[in-house]
Amino acid sequence: MLKIKVPATSANLGAGFDTLGVALNLYNEFIVEESDTVQIETYPKIPEFENPDKNLFVKVLKKTCEYIGNDFHGVKLTQKINVPVSRGLGSSATAIVGAIVAAFTANKKVLTDEEFFNIAYQFEPHPDNLLPALKGGFITACVEDKKTYYSKIPFPEELKFVVVIPDFELSTEKARKVLPEKVSLEDAVFNVQRVSLLISSLVNKDFDLLKVAMNDRLHEPYRKKLIPNFDKVVENALNSGAVGVSLSGAGSCMIALAKENFEDIGKSMVEAFNEVDIKAEYKILEIDKEGVQVEF
Ligand SMILES: Nc1ncnc2c1ncn2[C@@H]1O[C@H](COP(=O)(O)OP(=O)(O)O)[C@@H](O)[C@H]1O
Ligand SMILES: N[C@@H](CCOP(=O)(O)O)C(=O)O
């Protein structure tokens, strides 16, 4: 029996589209036991996830066993689901990372980065959730000539994350479909300027720069149309003391970075959604520095 614990992740942080991601102290758990058939139990119950043909963790487990060269006979999978699904908190990455690590661990094989990406990219083509879920921390990454390059960035202890979770899903697939094929040089430069300012302001703890540094022109202008009252959520969070606000991943969550006033910020973000008849809750989270953990 293996228990795999995988952290939620928040990708992009505004200007860092498809490159920045941070692991958060909110976890999905996957308990994996030997079985000759596929049995899945989910807590709370999500019927879609209990269908062996549709469960992402099982799909990735099968693919990984095939990659390793071992026949997949079955699995008894018990899932404790704490990461909201299709909210921009990397729930899909938790299943992908968890399954790959479970398969390699069960087969007593050492998982290299290259092998991880060879499998993971078949299910999720961008590293900004996968890497922080695997390694923990705050990471910047890119892919060049089919090789993934990444670097962990020190994240200031003073900052916490206030995540507002509206009660509607937004699949990453849908949120990527609304993005343009091309962007202007002006918008590209806008993001290059801000993502470098974002990293520098975090490393140097120049938190007053984050409000500007977390602005984005590559994805948020298009995706905000799918998030009712987006601008008011941002405005309320900043007025309540947040130092920066952005969409979390591809949404529907939004994430505020803050040194203080966490409860007020969370309540103000919820209020903005309530104004347009959308129920929401908030969580005050911190960085996870470990990434995926395995208990025997
Ligand atoms: N705990 C889980 N177990 C199995 N599959 C999961 C789990 N969480 C998410 N998934 C899969 O990931 C999909 C959501 O992925 P996506 O739209 O990228 O949203 P997110 O922003 O949460 O990653 C779900 O529809 C499901 O197929
Ligand atoms: N860079 C990706 C990140 C998707 O994150 P998720 O948590 O929403 O899956 C994107 O913006 O599409």
* SSE pattern, N- to C-terminal: EEEHEHHHEEEHHHHHEEHEE
CATH class of the largest domain: Alpha Beta
Q: From the 3D structure, determine the CATH topology of the largest domain.
A: Ribosomal Protein S5, domain 2
> Based on CA inertia axes, which overall geometry fits?
globular
Structural class call reads: alpha+beta
Helical proportion? 25-40%
- Tell me the total number of β-strands: 11
Note the gap between the termini.
6 Å
Indicate the multimeric state: single chain
CATH architecture of the largest domain: 2-Layer Sandwich
Largest sheet, in brief, is:
7 strands, mixed
Detail the poorly predicted runs.
none
Number of domains: 2
The number of helices is 10
Radius of gyration: 19 Å
Strand content: 25-35%
On the 0 to 100 scale, the average pLDDT is 97
* Distinct compounds present: adenosine-5'-diphosphate, the ligand N[C@@H](CCOP(=O)(O)O)C(=O)O
Task: Give structural notes.
The mean pLDDT is 97. The chain has helices at residues 56-68, 91-106, 113-120, 127-135, 172-177, 185-203, 210-213, 220-223, 230-239, 262-274, and strands at residues 2-12, 16-33, 38-43, 75-80, 138-144, 147-153, 160-166, 244-247, 254-258, 280-285, 293-295. The longest helix is centred in the middle third of the chain and has 19 residues, at 185-203. The protein is of the alpha+beta class and 296 residues long. Helix 1 runs parallel beside helix 2 (91-106). The strands form 2 sheets. Strands 1, 2, 3, 4, 5, 6 and 11 form a 7-stranded mixed beta sheet that branches. It has a 4-stranded antiparallel beta sheet with strand order 8-9-7-10. The chain is globular and about 55 Å long. It starts with a strand and ends with a strand. It binds adenosine-5'-diphosphate and ligand LJ64HWYM. Its main location: cytoplasm. Belongs to the GHMP kinase family. Homoserine kinase subfamily. Catalyzes the ATP-dependent phosphorylation of L-homoserine to L-homoserine phosphate. It catalyses: L-homoserine + ATP = O-phospho-L-homoserine + ADP + H(+).
